[in-house]
Amino acid sequence: MEPIYLLEAWKVREMLLRRELTPREVLQAVWERVREVEPRVNAYITETWDAAEEAVREAEKDWSQGKDPGPAAGLPMAVKDILCTRGIRTTCASLILENFVPVYDATVIERLKAAGLTMIGKANMDEFAMGSSTENSYFGPTRNPWDLGRVPGGSSGGSAAAVAAGEALWALGSDTGGSIRQPASFCGLVGMKPTYGRVSRYGLVAFASSLDQVGPITRCVKDCALLLQLICGHDPKDSTSLPEGVPDFLASLEGDVRGMRAGVPRELMGEGIAPGVKRIVVSCFEVLEDLGMKVEEVSLPHLDYALDAYYIIAPAEASSNLARYDGVRYGLRVEGEDVLDMYSRTRARGFGDEVKRRIMLGTYALSAGYYEAYYAQAQKIRTLIIGDFRRAFERCDVLVSPTSPTVAFRLGERLEDPLAMYMSDICTIPVNLAGLPAISVPCGLDQGLPVGFQIMGKLLDEVTVLRVAYALEQALGFRARPDSSKGVG
Amino acid sequence: MIGRKEVEHVAWLARLELSEEEKDKFSQQLGRILEHAERIKSVDTSGVEPTSHVLPLKNVMRDDEVRPGLTQEEALSNAPRREGGYFVVPRIV
Predict the structure, then answer these.
(1) What is the pTM of this model?
(2) Are the Cβ atoms of A240 and B53 closer than 8 angstroms?
(3) What single-letter DSSP state applies at residue A410?
(4) How far apart are CA A55 and CA A12, in angstroms?
(5) Domains of chain B
(6) Which residues of A touch B57 (CB under 8 A)?
(7) How far apart are CA A293 and CA A397, in angstroms?
(8) What ipTM was predicted for this assembly?
(9) Which of A262, A276, A266, A218 is nearest to A405 (CA)?
(10) In chain A, % of residues over pLDDT 90
(11) How far does Cα B60 stand from its chain's mean position?
(12) List of E strands, A40-162
């Protein structure tokens, strides 16, 4: 049998229910694994042993009284360090929040605590979720468990690396332009961005408020459905939270996909896609056809402009959101001659390179004389992209593409070239602009590294996305783990 | 490239002190990113409404009920400097 720390969360849950394992044994196994591999992987900013220990104590008390402590109990989880956790520092991988200790829990954390959350650590990330490699962290880069010379993707790279390395059974990430799906793809995992508004953003440190969404990073589609179920739902504390009811995601997995139509946007299969990635993704189209689906090429012409529109809109929103870091109410302060001097010095010292770059870019795009040409134009292109998706979904049930144009790249490879780094989000960005749900499913290895298959769905139609993902996963039967030749075996 | 003067102006708007080295780097890098983004100007968007938000939600209200909020101690607990229940800032005027 596989070691406990590499099992799917749902399997461990069943073993807990059958009393073949205790929550303490699971935590112990994962904890020992953390001690073994964390020095090489650096998946965590803060390890939360006390919180995990406390959760396990509570769970064992419930079990001993014949009560079920909940579907997340005894299943160690990594939580991206962008979600506020009461009494546990939340840094966003930034010096400016190095000592910030939230006085409240994010709504997703509150919900998970009610389900028995066993949080084992706050996961590393790109500073304020700005990046695609987890190299932009004040706490040092996370390494890909498949190959320690490569990046795990980003910005939720710590969450993905923790799950891939066996340092957690599952994880929470956040996705503004691909920050869940791309690291899931690079680390051979399942990652999902739900429909905008499905999951509360209360207590999620804001990057780009019209794009940010919290979601699961897991070892299989079933775990993804289980975790999604626990975090979705209306929250009166978030004015962008949807009032719609939440379907039973687990029950939806088994449904038939026969007769469904998958569209392949031509714009996401172009020259930028590495040949090895394209080959594996195309072979998945055949698998979908064998399952009785119709796969056909479609065109969403404005996707060609999605990356540029995104890199105006996201920095613009970020430059406004990050104005709050001024050294007054929380976070770092660097004293100055007057209040303006204090602001400028605090922000100069507290923010890293990429965050400054995006604040500058966003401020520029919003400034007098450039607003219409850049920001307003990007917002109009966003409207055109939404229209393209609507038309495609009149014919198709889902759209499919590679998750990332390449497999995991080497550490340092794109650090000096921001534009090359931004290009790695080219396939994931469009659904954020349109608010749609999308998942990445591992579908093969290219040069020994994982490739992700992206499935995008209609607004609020996570059910179909998950169903197709599950059918593909079962048909592929693809299971791979990092080995010790280059990674952590 | 965007000019150094412009970089300094934007940095001032953003309340961000930049080193001389950063000014050079950003004028080059932002220039390249914006050059790439120039492509969006070629798209005909006449008559297209801008999207700031994907949801149809508007003016979301809650009932005006008293609920527990943060205590003063909690609100001040992360303050870099505090005194007598206030945040302390440098002289403004």
Answers:
(1) 0.98
(2) yes
(3) B
(4) 16
(5) 1-42 (1.10.20.60)
(6) 197, 239-240, 242
(7) 10
(8) 0.96
(9) A276
(10) 96
(11) 23
(12) 44-47, 77-80, 119-123
- Nearest CA-CA partner of A83 in A182, A138, A156, A154: A156
Contacting residues of B for A376, CB less than 8 Å apart = 50
Contact (Cβ atoms closer than 8 angstroms) between residue A262 and residue A399: yes
**CA-based torsion, B21, B27, B30, B31: positive or negative:** negative
Q: Is B31 exposed, middle or buried (0-12, 13-18, 19+ CB in 10 A)?
A: middle
For residue A431, give the chain B residue with the closest CA.
Answer: B54
DSSP, residue by residue, A205-220? PPSSTTT-EEEEEESS
Residue-wise pLDDT tens digits, A343-353: 999 999 999 99
The mean pLDDT value for B24-48 works out to 94
Q: Identify the pLDDT of residue A278.
A: 98
Classified by CATH at the fold level, domain A4-257 comes out as: Amidase signature (AS) enzymes (3.90.1300)
**Bridge partners of residue A449, in order along the sequence:** A446
Closest CA to B1 of B21, B23, B27: B27
Q: Count the Cβ atoms, other than its own, within 10 Å of residue A64.
A: 8
| Interchain pair B26, A311: CB under 8 A | no
A323 phi/psi in degrees, rounded to 5: -65, -20
Distance between start and end Cα atoms, chain A: 15
How many residues are recorded in chain B? 93
What pLDDT sits at residue A271? 87
Measured CA to CA, the distance from residue A192 to residue A440 in angstroms comes to 6
Taking CA atoms, A7 is separated from A24, A29, A195, A220, A386, in Å, by 16, 11, 28, 10, 39
Host H or E run for residue A282: helix A275-290
In chain B the first and final C-alpha atoms are separated, in Å, by 38
| DSSP E strands, A225-349 | 261-265, 294-298
Tell me the C-alpha to C-alpha distance, in Å, between residue B10 and each of A366, A462, B13, B31: 10, 41, 5, 13
State whether the Cα torsion A360-A366-A369-A371 is positive or negative. positive
Q: Pick from B7, B15, B79: which is nearest to A344 by CB?
A: B15
Return the H-helix or E-strand segment holding B32: helix B20-37
CA distances from A98 to A23, A271, A316 (A): 31, 41, 24
Euclidean distance between CA atoms A221 and A251, whole angstroms: 12
Of A348, A373, A383, which is closest to B17 when you measure between CB atoms? A348
Annotate A301-314 with DSSP letters as a single string: GGGGGHHHHHHHHH
Sketch the domain layout of chain A as residue ranges: 4-257
Query: Does B50 contact A319 at a Cβ distance shorter than 8 Å?
Result: no
Half-sphere exposure of A231 (CA within 13 A, CB side): 32
* Single-letter amino acid code for the residue at A357: R
Integer Cα distance of A364 and A361 in angstroms? 5
Chain B residues in contact with A335 by the CB 8 A cut-off are 90
